[in-house]
Amino acid sequence: MSLLPHQLELLSPARDADIGIEAINHGADAVYIGGPSFGARTSASNSVADIERLARHAHRFGARVFVTLNTILRDDELEPARRLVRQFHDAGVDALIVQDMGLLALDLPPIQLHASTQCDIRTPEKARFLQDAGFSQIVLARELTLAQIAAVQQALGAGLAPERSAAAIEFFIHGALCVAYSGQCYISHAHTGRSANRGDCSQACRLPYQVLDAQGRFVAHDKHVLSMKDNNQSGNLAALVDAGVRSFKIEGRYKDMGYVKNITAHYRRLLDDILDARPDLARASSGRCTYTFTPDPGQNFNREFTDYFVNGRQQGIGAFDSPKNPGQPIGHVTRTGADHFDVQLDAPAATLANGDGLCYYDLQQELVGAQANRVEALGGGLWRVFPKDPVSRLHDLRKGTVINRNRSMDWVRTLEKKSADRRIGVWLTLSEAPGGLQLSATDEDGHSASAFAALPHQPPRDAAAASGKLREALARLGDTLFTPIDITLALPRPWFVPASVANQLRRDAAAALEAARLAAWQRPPRARPVEPPARYPEDTLTYLANVHNHAARDFYARHGVQVIAAAYESHEEEGEVSLMITKHCVRYSLSLCPKQAKGVTGVQGAVRAEPLQLVNGSEKLTLRFDCKPCEMHVVGRMKKAVLHAAAHEAPLAFYRTRPGAGAPSQNTSKNIA
């Protein structure tokens, strides 16, 4: 079914079907996964057969499976994409996550559509347009504040016809942060020909840069100034619920099994706490989870955490020193030897294990790895570490150095095993029936089924003992989806029921109930676009709209857009343009923002939002600052080698001529400081 207004959905990533199944087992209400092609993570593709296997498992719990088909498509890819969508529909997929509006013009099966984060949904107007165009769920930009999210939610519900329902708001709550507004980064394509909008980002944002001012003076040296810390909204979930978020999304379709298990379990617990305190809200799927471990986001790869812009702009959102995982401090070095170093752990009960990932910052604040090949306990919390690399190569390792752990082998081994159990509550009632006994089962969602066993009545020798054993036998649901909420023996007289009969009744009733649940599953309905077609909020689209095929161009024209430029990947923007637009501001992060200097004696007026330059080897980019919306543009041009390579591709004919000599320039950076 579709996500209802009172339901909260935990949406987890799946690199593959096995990880997706474990996400469901650890409490996900929905999972998103890439298909064999056209997903924005080219290295996380899956066969339709595997996705079908995941969908079958998810639907047992009433959970949903979304497939990412969120790249921009060429004209020659539209028909293969349409055929693939048909296969997804037949495989039981519940919804598609899409970016390319050309897909809406195809003859698709009635599968629900969700607007990808790549659609760059920042305003109430754009969110409402996408809802009116037929999207049932929309992923808002990660950069929005609580007030901005609430404004979107209000716009989605305003003036709806009685037969229509508002689109559900989806929001990222955890994982790696793309520094750009999603869909608004072209650096990778400009420098390498690998398009982020086609699923092949080279991640230039994680590189170190020299930062130079307008006079060529160094502002920062070898800093990862475009690298963000990781998103963590653990402390904001209740506020996000109040703002209107209903689908809580975890990033990570490249992440491993341990990450998905741990982070899903972490947010499952937090959301369950909210649901337990809010009877007006409900889970979006069935079953409760128990775990063999205590979830801890700090145990997985992270660049330290930030809640980004949810509570407004703040310092400390960047991972400028390193894009690597710094881990958590566990102790300090007491001495170094020729082939080892000793570490005094901070926590008395803490331990180390062979293979633990250790690291520290050297005197230049560079992160240095020191993986433990072998460890020895010396007593009193003191451990001897024999590192994988020679101690002589561990730069600046000395007495007093703080040691972090960024991988715990004990933790890894815990999550390699079965680590969660998800069960659906069920009421069981045993009653007499003509010629035997009937066991009726009703689950927490109201589905019912029953099983019958032919058995002549025979009184037990000890009625009380027989009743107790019968309850125990019926309660053994360990090999099923279910767990007993209550067991009622609605028997007018005592019965002797052999254990074999009771066990078979239990197995048959559980199987019948699971079959009834699957039979009741309904595909979420596809929302119909409003008629006449809603007008797009703007009448002119630049390359930033990512229009890469005729169908997408026709979509926007049908919705009132008069000037439609080609996507950057079409190579019409050969000059200097904004290659990235971001809410992150390097000037602000380096305390060089004019607004920060306002009112400071001796500084006010001296700090201006002049351009800065980023340099990495031969790569040079210009930072320009648009202070009114408080945004930064990373400006550059496409490399000649990329343009030359593209010359061999078939041209997009409808883009060969601009729509009129007076069409506006596509250089969006020209009026920015």
Provide a brief overview of the structure.
This protein has 673 residues and is α/β, with parallel strands linked by helices. Strand 3, helix 3 (75-90) and strand 4 (95-98) form a beta-alpha-beta unit.
Which features characterize this protein?
673 residues, alpha/beta, TIM Barrel, Thrombin, subunit H, 4 domains, seven-stranded antiparallel beta sheet, 15 helices, 24% helix, 26% strand, globular, disordered C terminus
Biggest sheet strand order reads 1-2-3-4-5-6-7-11
Structural class: alpha/beta
What share of the residues lie within helices?
A: 10-25%
CATH class of the largest domain: Alpha Beta
Number of domains: 4
Q: Give the uncertain stretches in residue-range form.
A: 655-671
CATH architecture of the largest domain: Alpha-Beta Barrel
Largest sheet: 8 strands, parallel, barrel
Distance between the termini: 49 Å
The overall pLDDT average reads 93
Total strand segments: 31
Looking at the structure, what is the overall shape? globular
**DSSP helix count?**
15
Measured by DSSP, the beta-strand proportion falls in: 25-35%
What would CATH call the homologous superfamily of the largest domain? Ribulose bisphosphate carboxylase, large subunit, C-terminal domain
Q: Could you say what the CATH topology of the largest domain is called?
A: TIM Barrel
Give the radius of gyration. Answer: 29 Å
Please give a structural write-up.
- 24% of the residues lie in helices and 26% in strands.
- It folds into 4 domains: 7-177 and 228-285 and 293-299, Ribulose bisphosphate carboxylase, large subunit, C-terminal domain (TIM Barrel, Alpha-Beta Barrel), CATH 3.20.20; 187-227 and 535-673, no CATH class; 324-416, Thrombin, subunit H (Beta Barrel); 425-520, no CATH class.
- Helix 1 (17-25) runs parallel beside helix 2, helix 1 (17-25) runs parallel beside helix 8 (257-277) and helix 10 (463-475) packs parallel to helix 11 (499-520).
- It is globular and about 100 Å long.
- It has an 8-stranded parallel beta barrel with strand order 1-2-3-4-5-6-7-11, surrounded by 7 helices. It has a 7-stranded antiparallel sheet with strand order 18-17-21-15-16-20-19. It has a 6-stranded antiparallel sheet with strand order 9-8-29-30-31-28.
- A hairpin with a 4-residue loop joins strand 30 and strand 31.
- With 673 residues, the chain is α/β, with parallel strands linked by helices.
